[in-house]
Specification:
Strands 5, 6, 7, 8, 9, 10 and 27 form a seven-stranded antiparallel beta sheet that branches. The chain has a six-stranded mixed beta sheet with strand order 12-13-14-20-21-26, sandwiched between helices. By secondary structure, the chain is an alpha+beta fold. The chain starts with 33 loop residues before the first helix and ends with a helix. It has eleven helices and 28 strands.
Length: 518
C-alpha cells in the first residue's frame, strides 16, 4: 500500500467564471502526529477534489485537527461530516449530502478503513455484505419485519447467491417464525428487538419457518466467505403474445463478477426472441460506472452507437487541471492493482477531468438489438449506478419506473488512499444526453407500487412486476394488488407496515476507476 501523508501543501486556486474558488494558499502548521496528518490530508483533498469545493472555508477557519473523539475513525467521520455541510442545494436549502434517514451521517461521501492490503474496500464498518467485487462474508440475507410491535411477520427480502442461506435452500419470500428456537412476532419492543439484532449479528444462527412452497424448514447457518453472482433471477415471461425479459440484478460489481453474467443473460434473451425488458433494481445500491455502461450497451439498440450516453462533470479546479494533489494518488484497477504505462506508475494527475473528455458514448454490446421499451423496478434502495442506467436510457427509449422513489445519487467518486484509509468524496455529477440529472431527491416512479416480499423475484403476480408487465403488454399500469406489501421503512398504520429492516451494510456507490472513465 502506498501511504499518502501531506505535511504541508501549497495550493493556488484561480477563479473560473461562475464557479468561485478560494484563491488562497493552504499551509497547515507542521506536525509529526499521524492522526493530525490524516485529518489535514482529508481537508486538503476536499479543497481540490470535492464536487462542492468552492463552498469550503480556509484551512484555518475549518481547523481539521479540532475533531477529537473516542477513536480515530470517529474523529475522521466527524471531520468528513462537517466538510459535507457546506455544499448547499438551493432547491432545499439543505446540504447536498443531507441524509434524511440518518441525519448525523453523510448521504454520499464516506471513509473506509482498509479491509485488506492492496485491495479496494467499499463497505462501511458495520455488518459484512457482498462487496463490489462479488465477495461476501455473512449469512447472505436481508430480513424485513412487517406489521406492528405486537403482531408482525418476518420475511427474507433477498438471499445472495452462493451464500450460506442460499446453499441451505432459502430465498426471497421465506417466512421466519423462530430464531434460535425462540418464537418471534409478538413482542418486538418488549425484548424481541434486542434478541433479533443480537442473533443476526452473531457468527451462527438457527432459523425456522415456512418457504414459499408452504414446506417447513429449520436450518443452522454460519457466517462464511463466498463468491456471489450479481444476478438474483433472470427469466423470460410470455404475456399477450409478448416475450418479456426479466432481470433482477443485485449490484454493479466489477468486470470479473458482472460482465460475463450480464452478457449471458442478454444472450439468452436474444435467443428467446425477447422484445421488451423488465430490469429489477429494487435493492441495487449501484457500483462501478464501467459496469453500468456495459448494461446500458446490452440494452440499447445499435442505432444509438456514437451518441452520448452520459457525461461526468467535475469541479472547476479539476477541470482546469489544478488538482495537483492527485499526483499523490496512484491509479488502481477494480481489483486494487497499481496501473503502469511503459513502466511508469500512473497517478490520477495523469487523468483529464475536462467535461469533453468525460463523455461516454453508446457502443452496442450483445445481440439483443430490438429493445424499445424498458420498465425498471425501483425502491429507495435503488441508487447511484442503478439511477445512472435509468437516466441514460431515458432520452432514447420508452423508459418507465415502477415501485417507489429511488435513493437519489446523481454523483460519484473514486478512492483516495490516505494512510490506512480509503476516502470517497463526492467528486463528479452525471447528466444524460439531454443534460438531465440533478435527481438528488430520487427518481419518482411512473407507477407507485409496494414491494411485495411474499413473492419471489420474477413472479408475474408480484405487485411491481405485474404492473410492469401490464404496461408492456397493454400500454397502461394495473392497479395495485394485495400481498405482503410495504410503502417505505417510515410508513405507519397498516398491518403490512415496515417495523424494521435488517440487512448487511451496503455502499450506495457510483465508483469510477480509470478504466471506468474511459
Amino acid at each position: 500500500i502506498i501511504n499518502t501523508f501531506l505535511v504541508a501543501l501549497s495550493i493556488f486556486f484561480t477563479a473560473c467564471k461562475k464557479d468561485k474558488i478560494i484563491a488562497k494558499e493552504e499551509t497547515p502548521p507542521p506536525t509529526s502526529n499521524r492522526d493530525e496528518l490524516t485529518k489535514d490530508s482529508i481537508f486538503l483533498y476536499a479543497k481540490q477534489v470535492y464536487l462542492w469545493n468552492a463552498e469550503l472555508p480556509t484551512y484555518t477557519l475549518f481547523n481539521p485537527r479540532q475533531y477529537k473523539g473516542s477513536d480515530n475513525i470517529t474523529n475522521l467521520n466527524a471531520e468528513l461530516f462537517a466538510l459535507t455541510r457546506y455544499g448547499k442545494n438551493a432547491a432545499t436549502g439543505l446540504p447536498y449530502e443531507y441524509n434524511p434517514e440518518y441525519t448525523d451521517e453523510t448521504k454520499y461521501s464516506f471513509i473506509e478503513d482498509l479491509a485488506a492490503e492492496g485491495k479496494l474496500a467499499f463497505l462501511k464498518n458495520k455488518q459484512s455484505s457482498v462487496d463490489f467485487n462479488g465477495e461476501g462474508n455473512d449469512f447472505g440475507f436481508s430480513v424485513i419485519l412487517l406489521g406492528k410491535s405486537s403482531a408482525y411477520d418476518v420475511f427474507l427480502r433477498f438471499v445472495s447467491p452462493g451464500s450460506p442461506a442460499a446453499l441451505a435452500g432459502l430465498g426471497r419470500g421465506v417466512k421466519i417464525e423462530k430464531i434460535n428456537g425462540r418464537a418471534i412476532g409478538t413482542n418486538y419492543n418488549g425484548g424481541e428487538d434486542v434478541f433479533i439484532n443480537n442473533a443476526l449479528n452473531a457468527n451462527s444462527i438457527n432459523i425456522a419457518g415456512k418457504k414459499l412452497s408452504g414446506s417447513s424448514f429449520d436450518v443452522n447457518l454460519t457466517k462464511a466467505k463466498y463468491e456471489s453472482s450479481p444476478i438474483f433471477k433472470d427469466t423470460v415471461l410470455v404475456n399477450g403474445g409478448k416475450k418479456i425479459g426479466y432481470l433482477a440484478y443485485a449490484r454493479f460489481t466489477d468486470d470479473k463478477n458482472s460482465e460475463a453474467a450480464l452478457t449471458n443473460v442478454f444472450s439468452k434473451f436474444s435467443g428467446a426472441g425477447v422484445t421488451d425488458l423488465v430490469v429489477d433494481l429494487r435493492y441495487n445500491p449501484g457500483g462501478y460506472v464501467s459496469t453500468a455502461e456495459h448494461l446500458i450497451n446490452l440494452i440499447a439498440p445499435s442505432s444509438l452507437n456514437g451518441k452520448t450516453m452520459f457525461e461526468q462533470t467535475y469541479n472547476a479546479t479539476m477541470q482546469a487541471g489544478l488538482a495537483t494533489i492527485l499526483k499523490n494518488q496512484p491509479q488502481r484497477d477494480q481489483q486494487g492493482a497499481l496501473i503502469y504505462n511503459n513502466g511508469r506508475l500512473l497517478t490520477y494527475a495523469d487523468e483529464s477531468f475536462k467535461k469533453s473528455d468525460n463523455r461516454t458514448l453508446f457502443s452496442k454490446e450483445g445481440s439483443l438489438d430490438n429493445i424499445s421499451k424498458v420498465v425498471f423496478i425501483t425502491t429507495d434502495g435503488t441508487a447511484s449506478s442503478s439511477e445512472l442506467v435509468i437516466n441514460s436510457l431515458k432520452p432514447f427509449l420508452t423508459v418507465k419506473t415502477v415501485g417507489s422513489t429511488s435513493y437519489g445519487k446523481p454523483v460519484g467518486f473514486f478512492p483516495i488512499r490516505i494512510d490506512k484509509y480509503d476516502l470517497y468524496l463526492s467528486s463528479f455529477s452525471t447528466t444524460n444526453a439531454n443534460g438531465d440529472g440533478n435527481y438528488f431527491a430520487g427518481i419518482k416512479p411512473d407507477a407507485e407500487r409496494d414491494d411485495d416480499v411474499s413473492k419471489d423475484f420474477g413472479d408475474p403476480s408480484e405487485t411491481s412486476l405485474s404492473a410492469a408487465i401490464s404496461f408492456l403488454t397493454n400500454g397502461k399500469f394495473t392497479t395495485s394488488s394485495g400481498g405482503k406489501t410495504v410503502n417505505s421503512a417510515k410508513s405507519v398504520g397498516s398491518s403490512n407496515n415496515v417495523l424494521k429492516v435488517y440487512e448487511p451494510a451496503v455502499l450506495k456507490g457510483m465508483v469510477a476507476t480509470p478504466e471506468g472513465e474511459k
